[in-house]
Design brief:
alpha+beta; D-Maltodextrin-Binding Protein, domain 2; disordered N terminus
Length: 441
């Protein structure tokens, strides 16, 4: 690889905005506009990045390859540390509070809103990327900004779909996953009767449990807060959601109360469940296995979206991840240059392709990546950002919504009611009490 000076890298970064991106030998033109951002990198700069552990090997391989390329182009050494999904959030919060640690963190949802004053203002970069690559999806406008300024660069969405065994669904008498709530429950009951139960996480799973709990509530018209941030969880809609959740829980494999993010992957790949919710990582693991049984499982695996509830439109939560750079970094320009580099098409497109769409695009231009059509089983994940609601729904995003998510307020409510450890009303009352500690209106 040709080595460039720091100045040459900055010029090349600007020029790449007008370049076509080539993915797996298939080229498509990215939108072009003059100029990128010019960040004069500090002398002697080094960076430390904390990110979540991969579920898809191609993600990690291409991420590391891109990091190496950044170092070769800029001379900036970058150390990447990986932590489990559940561990990134507390470690990022510690770094923010003590003012030391990683320069950049790949965090979850609106984690940046818990400590917005501790983060670099990246408005110039976000605006540049948006203007050059088709604009940000609306949901990222909400997650990335605080008080009108961008405090994080959205990396993308780990799209969450229903993952199911087509043969087992048909054996239970269903040609496809029903799109309505009553039909979905009947399907789950039929699968249970065939000894092929379903399973959704009810434990401290950052992605899977939150996605399920929020969908369950929203599909029945419930919400944690209203548009003013008033806690309104104690409602007939919430009670309907939890009563439905109790019935659905009876069709599930045992043990979901302790499931974390890897748990449903293992249960599905082990043949313990016929249907769960997950990113494309389950399919990726089966498809790329050398085990004949898993290869057959991959062929039998299909993906679809959640049923539509009372509103008549999708009410899904996806697992959004953002890159945030802390003010305590000694090298803010190097940090911003790294964020930009990873979002440019020459890096982002091959990374998304290598992970077969495990993380879907936050910028609309990247919808054209061939990964979404080369394998039709990946296509449902393409639309994650355009389908999802933000988890603050219907209220504002900010420190209160971030804290409620981090504290698993809705996940615990669903788990308590479903398992019978509390009555439906007791579970609601506890959730309301916890939420009011954060939403002080």
């Amino acid at each position: 690889m040709t080595k460039l000076s720091r100045r040459e890298f900055l010029i090349a970064g600007a020029a790449s905005a007008a370049a076509a991106s080539t993915v797996g030998g298939s080229a498509f033109a990215a939108p072009s506009a003059p100029g990128g951002i010019d960040y004069p990198i500090e002398k002697g700069a080094t960076l430390r990045v904390l990110r979540w552990k991969r579920f898809v090997q191609g993600d990690e391989d291409l991420w590391n390859e891109n990091v190496k390329k950044f170092t070769e182009l800029t001379g900036v050494p970058v150390r990447t540390d990986s932590e489990g999904f559940e561990d990134v959030r507390p470690k990022a919060a510690v770094a923010a509070n003590v003012g030391s640690g990683p320069d950049i963190v790949l965090g979850w949802f609106d984690d940046p809103h818990q400590y917005p004053t501790k983060l670099l203002d990246v408005t110039d970069l976000a605006n540049s990327l948006g203007s050059r690559y088709g604009g940000w999806y609306d949901v990222f406008q909400k997650y990335g900004k605080s008080n009108g300024k961008w405090i994080a660069i959205p990396l993308g969405v780990i799209g969450i779909c229903l993952v199911y065994r087509d043969s087992q669904l048909k054996a239970a008498g269903f040609e496809a996953v029903p799109k309505d709530l009553p039909g979905f429950l009947k399907m789950a009951q039929a699968l249970k009767a065939k000894n092929t139960p379903i399973g959704f996480a009810h434990g401290k799973a950052v992605g899977d449990a939150n996605n399920y709990a929020h969908w369950l509530l929203w599909a029945h018209g419930g919400k944690l807060v209203d548009e003013h941030g008033n806690v309104v969880i104690n409602s007939a809609e919430t009670r309907a959601a939890l009563e439905y959740g109790k019935q659905l829980y009876q069709t599930m494999v045992q043990g979901t109360l302790s499931w974390q993010d890897p748990s449903n992957n293992k249960a599905y790949l082990d043949g313990q469940v016929s249907l769960t919710n997950n990113g494309i990582s389950i399919y990726y693991a089966a498809k790329n296995s050398s085990d004949p049984k898993l290869l057959e499982l991959a062929k039998d695996t299909q993906h679809t979206h959640y049923p539509i509830g009372v509103s008549g439109k999708p009410t899904e939560l996806m697992q959004l991840t953002q890159m945030m750079a802390f003010k305590h970094t000694k090298y803010p320009n190097a940090a911003k240059a790294f964020l930009q580099f990873m979002m440019e098409p020459d890096q982002f497109n091959p990374w998304m392709k290598a992970a077969i769409g495990y993380v879907s695009q936050p910028l609309k231009a990247y919808e054209k990546n061939p990964v979404w059509t080369a394998d039709p089983k990946a296509t449902p994940y393409r639309d994650a950002a355009s389908l999802m609601l933000d988890h603050g729904h219907a209220g504002p995003l900010g420190q209160a919504s971030a804290a409620c998510l981090a504290d698993y307020v809705l996940v615990d409510m669903v788990a308590e009611a479903a398992s019978g450890s509390k009555t439906v009303q007791q579970a609601i009352d506890r959730a309301a009490e916890r939420a009011k500690r954060f939403y002080k209106t």
